[in-house]
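pinging the channel bc i need a second pair of eyes. not urgent but kinda urgent?? the chain im working w is below, pasted from the shared doc
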Amino acid sequence: DVQLVESGGGSVQAGGSLRLSCVVSGFPYTVYRVGWFRQAPRKTREGIACQNLRGGRAYYATSVMGRFTISQDSADSPLYLQMNALESDDSAMYYCAAGGSGGSCLTSQPYAYWGQGTQVTVS
């Protein structure tokens, strides 16, 4: 079975850092993209970082560029999101996702598999 399990969320003061982890397993060979998304109350889901499952160029939303870093050591290792210089606008539920082709990796379209989310609150 396909599984994505996020962890590492929590409460932090503005200017602080958090590192989110996403354990991924059970993917079919058609999955080759991974990404991080977030959704705040009363806002649409936002793609914030993505890359190919086996590394390569990463893409970031303008809102997090220079502050967040997506990484994964190998296709079988956890997916990480290092978040630095956190701001109150970063408060949201954060999700990792995995999928294949079909549009920009910062949109929801390519992703068939989603985790349950981990909450990040910045005060």
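so The chain has a mean pLDDT of 92. and The radius of gyration is 13 Å. — does that match what u expected or am i reading it wrong
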